[in-house]
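Section 3.1: Structural characterization of target chains.
Under the original work plan, the team committed to producing a structural model for every single-chain target entering the pipeline before any wet-lab resources were allocated. The record below documents one such target. The sequence was received from the expression subgroup and is listed exactly as submitted; it comprises 322 residues.
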Amino acid sequence: MKRRSVLAGGVALGAGVATGPVPAWAAAEPGLSAGDVAAARALFAAGAYTRLGQVLPLLLAAAARSAEQGPAGAARAAGVWVLASQLAVKQGRTAFAGAYAKRAGTAATRSGDPVVLAAAARAAATPLRRTGRTDEALLLLHEARTHLLAGSRPTAAELEAAGLAALTAAYSAAQAHRPALARDFAAQAEEDTLRLARHPHTPGRPRELTAGQCALYGIGIHRHLGDVDTALAHARRLRPDRLPTAERRARAATDTARTLLDAGDAAGAFAQLCLVELAAPSEARRPSVRALTAEVAAVRPGLPGLDTYVRRTAPGVNAPAG
């Protein structure tokens, strides 16, 4: 019997992303297709984390088989494990994120594709830095970037992956309070962005590495470095409507909310939290964003609309009417 793909042509994405429904299974061991990985990535980009969590067991089982099916199969498997790691980060499950990232790295190595290797390195960086292993994260990202740019004429995909690795490294260095290294990596990312802009753009495929993406990262980088004014300057430069996905728009609003709260503007922070929920409701319910909501509620409990927002997104947080 011919194997069907895991998602058999798509999954119900929700969050405004249209695709076909999930059909009944007709094969015990469906294969993992590039379309499956793309559909799962679309779920993540839309902030449809509950739906992604529902289909993830099927994807992970298929990824384990796909990893043994040559370089292309290994690349698809790595893509699934990267997504699993990213979802675990969103859920605050650092140990799971690290385990998935490790499997992504193994599969990426089998694929031999430097772009896939860089994606796995970026996935690994977050659990590494969260467990005090920032130097390992930075080395991994540096090596991935070096590999991508080893040729005299890197492709657009390689430039984009290199720039994203540099942004992740800059953020990791900033969290470790290493300003010179953070700024150096951020500058490398901006240089890659300019180089990428000179390459023809593939229609229908939004670029991840853009000036807007650099500005988004700049908010968090400078906030972690203690430079709130520069972080807010990056936030003012940013056009959230030009960010390619709901997940990125929600991340921009989250980082801006944190920075505004650091600056003493709880009302502005709450306004940004409302934008988080508008962009991707699941983002507003993540553990770290719920904690941010609790901080705002503690500082300004009487803000109009805050009590309702708390009950909707962070039940259990105390937000008295003041």
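The two ends are 66 Å apart (CA to CA).
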